[in-house]
Amino acid sequence: MPPTLSTEILVIGGGATGLGAAWDAALRGYKTLLVEKGDLTHGTSGRYHGLLHSGARYVVRDPQSAADCAKENGRLRRLMPSAIEDTGGYFVALDEDPPGYVEPFVKGCAAAGIAAAEVSPAEARRAEPLLTDRLARAFHVPDAACDSFDAAHLVSNGITAAGGEVWLRHRLARLLVEGGRVVGAELERASDGERRTVLADLVLNCAGAWAGQVAARAGCEVRVTAGKGTMVAMNYRLVNRVLNRLKPPSDGDILVPVGTVAVIGTTDIKVENPDQYAIEPWEIELLMAEGAKLLPRFREFRALRAWAGVRPLYDASKAGQPAESRLLTRAHAVLDHAARDGVEGLISVVGGKFTTFRLMAEEAVDLAGVKLGTQRACATANTPLEPAATRHHVLRGRLAASEVYPRPALVCECELVTREEVTGALTRSQSPVLNDLRRDLRLGMGPCQAGFCAGRAAALMHAGREPEPPVAESNSTLLEFLQERWKGLRPVMWGANLRQMELDLNIYRNLLGADRLPTARPPETYPTEKTA
Ligand SMILES: Cc1cc2nc3c(=O)[nH]c(=O)nc-3n(C[C@H](O)[C@H](O)[C@H](O)COP(=O)(O)OP(=O)(O)OC[C@H]3O[C@@H](n4cnc5c(N)ncnc54)[C@H](O)[C@@H]3O)c2cc1C
User: Is the same domain home to 133 and 170?
Assistant: First the structure.
């Protein structure tokens, strides 16, 4: 049994909220450890829409949330410019949209401090040539695109630079509760199941849609509704600005340019289990139809893949208790379990948005300071994060780097990922999982969806590790990587994508016999004769 460790603040969850909280705590000088059961952004933060909200989306329904987004939008641009693309955004009302929404929208933007400037439909169409001519009104707002993988790496580096630690692939197995106080946790390492005890003065539960499960380990009830949202990435950057429909928020009303693609989303459906949900055919049809309302030629372009994430929606109606007042005006909540449930040493941070993660973290660590009796000022608002070494969504730099002689060997042609980048990322992350490499480098995220790069990357991973892992282990990571790609391709299986899938299937199933390889774990969802 490894020795027991101790820390002041233990953060559960390596999504935006947990990363923000650990960064904030470490900067305030607390001894901080963050644990995440998967990779960085393994949960919702790696499956979101990619929009750094200006706040305009919420001005009518949730003004507090709008004001929070507006403030944080400006701050995050200063703190992590390398993760953010200043695309700007348009809110556009089509002739079918309710004209009565425009006035409260304009007033709401003014009240929340959001610079919304009306532009003529002709000007909007000049800037976005694919935009429909059924435009009634258009407003420019300071929306932007934010790459959550880049952002997560930046914040993670910020945590370690401030003296904190980040343990990936460590799952919270048990909260240690003594005399009504959470005093630490038992953590399980994914690679070998080894358990380790960490004593903590305070545990911050930042487990997103899983926060209810974590709180339950201390006997506390936190109702988190998992709201599934589906998105479709189109294989072209169809717009240069974020397009939002100027009407009450609904399904498929936002199109975000993210690097070389454009993402239409989302839906919002309550699911029972944040680990088990399916993308329904009607969701894809609805998103494609809504996309075509904004851009009439939308369906002429190739839908590259679909994916879904689960919103951690906080339901304040704890059995027998009235809703907490802050929830009435805010979309996130910081729960003090001592005041709420009589359990000391545990704070849960739930709800919110990616855009507001820094603010949520600040509020959570403020409360942690009160609990620990050592209040210290928050420094995150004024501490810029170092530029990212790797910018995931900017192919231009990669293209220039690959146009030299001798040409670097490319592992993934679609995303221009070189052999050197793969081996470098492997050394840095020490992760034996191809899906982690995908998040680090965008490996396999282009049009062929890993058809050509998966085998090469798996070979590099296998041969590049000391000691060389069992072949069955490497086969498993390859198949799990292909499964993940396959999951996203299946819902958009028509036209060029269908042909691409046939090609990928033939390479891996018929040529390489991937579905018959010895594996360390059962490749449950990899396309077999039956499922294909
Ligand atoms: C479809 C969709 C689109 C969205 N689009 C936007 C958008 O465009 N802009 C925006 O600002 N917001 C958006 N959001 C909201 C935003 O993505 C989320 O609010 C935010 O990412 C939540 O971050 P989080 O850290 O709280 O949760 P998560 O990112 O889910 O992080 C929680 C982490 O906890 C880990 N964990 C769980 N249990 C354990 C355990 N036992 N041990 C260790 N680790 C554990 C999980 O693996 C996970 O990584 C969107 C949400 C959805 C669903």
Answer: no
